[in-house]
Amino acid sequence: MPPINKLRAVLVPRPRASPGNRRPADPALRQLRVALTAFFALDGFVFAGWVVRIPDIKDQTGASPSALGVALLGVSAGAVVTMTLTGRLCQRFGNHPVTLAAGVLLAVSVALPPHTHSAAALGAVLLVFGTAFGAINVAANSAAVDLVAALGRPVMPSFHAAFSLGGMLGAGLGGLVAGQLSAARHLALLAGLGLVIAAVAGRALLAAGVPARPAAGAEPAAGTGAAGAMRGRVRWLVVVLGFVALCTTYGEGALADWSALHLRESLDASTGVAAAGYSVFALAMTVGRLTGSAMLQRLGQARALIAGGATAAAGMLLASLAPTVGLALTGFVITGLGLANVFPITIGQAGALAGPRGVAAASTLGYGGMLAGPVAIGFLAEWFSLATALTTVALLSAVAAVTAYGLRRTVQPGV
Description:
globular
């Protein structure tokens, strides 16, 4: 497919297929979809299981809050540094083998933190864990992009819904067993379960093979001026997509760390109610992703990006400036629904344009927003107030919506 058509294809709303025209799903593609869904769920399940044991690991290592913060950066550093490398590995070895290898490493490495006894050692093993986390995100998303192209339907949000559901299940089970099992035993069991899931899903993943994309026109001849210009345009578009992802993951990171504190300090909510802030946000994101495929079929990619950013901006403005807890929680729900599908859409589009390297580039920028959000909110809250600081989430969500609109006009003039 010529690059200019690729630019249009990922953004132009596809006409909804009537029941009579819809192609029956290939059993091999269904098997591949189930296997990939399992890896997305495994990713969220293992990561959430680790997160709920952070307080126990802190006590075990005797780390100060600042030392723990530096150690925890190992996860982020490992993920971000690995993402670009994973794109190259996927191109060389294939998305499916790299997804399986990353899933196995993720499962094994989650058992390591309870066996550390210093912040430095913890940071080192979290670097390995972060490496696996970054690798599986790029490889699984790249494999999902291929499957979406083969299916001809916008099912990318369903994979990210599996990640969200896996995270909710991992956090819930982790909370239930925290009082009965030590962190070492809990994470060892989690690692064992993760390896079983990776083995079963990985066998199906490798057996399914790479799905064939629909036939398309020939690419422009390599080395021509037009081809070079279009490659440059594709790279630019991937960067813009990554920027849109950054604007919205900034909000995800900020709400994960600051939503409960906002309800507690700004609105005098009880501890239990304050804890519900992030829970309702995460639940709304999960619901949004479960219904995301239907929304994309109705609105198309570009309109969904614009609507998502605008909805999140309105919801976060309400959540940050609300005078009551009830209105703030309502704002968190609206924000979650708005942000739910922005990251899946941007990653899917980047992959459709530039393959695994596009996924890697957009993911790296996107996760940069998740890292920057909590830190930026902390500084702004100290300078102004927490409520004021959280309005930057609304601001960047609005920037994402405006950027998506400008991107749509650039790719589709006059539409």
